[in-house]
Amino acid sequence: MNKTIYCISGLGADEKAFSNLQLKDYELKYIPWLRPHKNEKIEGYAKRMSASIRHESPLLLGLSFGGMIGIEIAKQMPLQKLIIVSGVKSTSELPRWMKVAGALYLNKLLPTGSYKLTEKIDNARLGVTTQEEMEMVKNYRRIADPVYMQWAISRVFNWKNHWHPENIIHIHGDKDRVFPVRKVKPHHIIKDGTHIMIYNRAREISEVITGELAKCR
Questions:
Q1: N or C terminus of the chain with fewer C-beta within 10 Å?
Q2: CATH number, residue 113
């Protein structure tokens, strides 16, 4: 069995999101976000992201928006297993407000270059509670590429997808306020898990992932 897990983080985040996972015998290989081309479709972007994958039938772990990209990659190449955490599998699992915002192009009005007005609201939605978590997300906002952020938010709000691979494992928190659990159908629910649970509930998520991968052997 392939022992490399390719990881795609959430919108604007980086490899630190996966830093607390403890997956014995597995190497986590982070695929960094690319700057999107002008008017690039999510299918083409996913193909460019997949160019970093060096294994056939790879293991892929997608966090939030990274899960969407993972599904788009799965449409283009076979995966041994796709694991998504704090994400959605289809358009029907998106919150209604996101679909409405996408239809009305409201994402173009979002202040992607400045978060001073929305920082507290965003932190609450993400489930940020500790000073360490606050500093982490503040740093993400500081270094975020506005071009990428505007593109990515638009692709989330306007995602048109009704398919996912059969070998998908969906892990979700019951306190996720970005993608409320009542809208999604996960395979595993983490009690009191928020949108950033992969960082602050990493032990439990590691146990779930390890158990699922053991079934593949």
A1: C
A2: 3.40.50.1820
